[in-house]
Write a structure and sequence with these properties.
Blueprint (H helix, E strand, L loop, with lengths): L1 E7 L2 H12 L10 H13 L10 E10 H7 L5 E5 L2 H4 L1 H4 L6 H4 L6 H19 L4 H4 L8 E9 H11 L6 H13 L19
Antiparallel strand pairs: 1-2, 2-4, 3-4
Length: 202
């Protein structure tokens, strides 16, 4: 799994949005400590969390399974642009020897991982038999790797991190949640530190 932060909204945009409500622009310190404290106070402590929606993050996420992709789809206030199997299954069709690590996310469970390999072999056979990608993709194992560009606002990201860094979450999406948090700009992390599970204190 590889997570790349492509772009993020500067925090001063959120401070400006908050100050719009009370017309308190004269109290701004241009994104300094006063504005940062304002964002935390209004967005988190006063629960006026809609103001956090003015901050968005764009991530490029690579090497996740389609099983994880399904979990991501449940977080509706986010935008996903996903690698198309319709156009990219030729990578599998054209290789002579399958590099399973290139195509599959492994769980560490030998029985499950071997079943994924068998499913990938079967999929390649279907493709080589001339079946179109649109039909062949129904043979895809859930462990098949994909990638996406993911855009989410700060309010929704707090919810995502709270739910998905939990020890009860799917192990792969838990790894993603922690990786997303680590990829955030340092000056933004204070908005999310109370929403990421810290197992060292449990």
């Amino acid at each position: 799994m590889k997570i790349t932060l492509l772009h993020n909204t500067p925090l001063n945009i959120c401070a400006h949005a908050i100050r719009t409500c009370w017309q308190s622009f004269d109290k701004s310190d241009d994104g300094g400590e006063k504005d940062l404290a304002l964002i935390d106070r209004v967005g988190n402590k006063f629960k006026h969390a809609s103001t956090l929606e003015h901050i968005t993050y764009n991530f490029y996420i690579q090497g996740i399974s389609r099983a994880l992709l399904q979990e991501l789809a449940r977080h509706r206030i986010a935008s996903l642009s996903v690698k198309s199997t319709r156009y990219t299954l030729k990578e599998l069709k054209e290789c002579d020897i399958i590099d399973y690590k290139k195509f599959l996310v492994f769980t560490g469970n030998e029985i499950v991982d071997n079943a994924s390999k068998t499913a990938l072999d079967n999929l390649q056979n279907v493709l080589k038999a001339g079946i179109s990608n649109d039909i062949a993709k129904y043979c895809l194992p859930e462990s098949y790797k994909t990638e996406l560009t993911w855009t989410i606002n700060a309010r929704s990201l707090q919810n995502f991190l709270h739910l998905r860094s939990s020890k009860d979450a799917l192990w792969e999406i838990r790894n993603l949640a922690n990786g997303i948090y680590e990829a955030l700009p340092e000056e933004h992390k204070y908005l999310f530190e109370d929403h990421i599970c810290d197992y060292s204190t449990e």
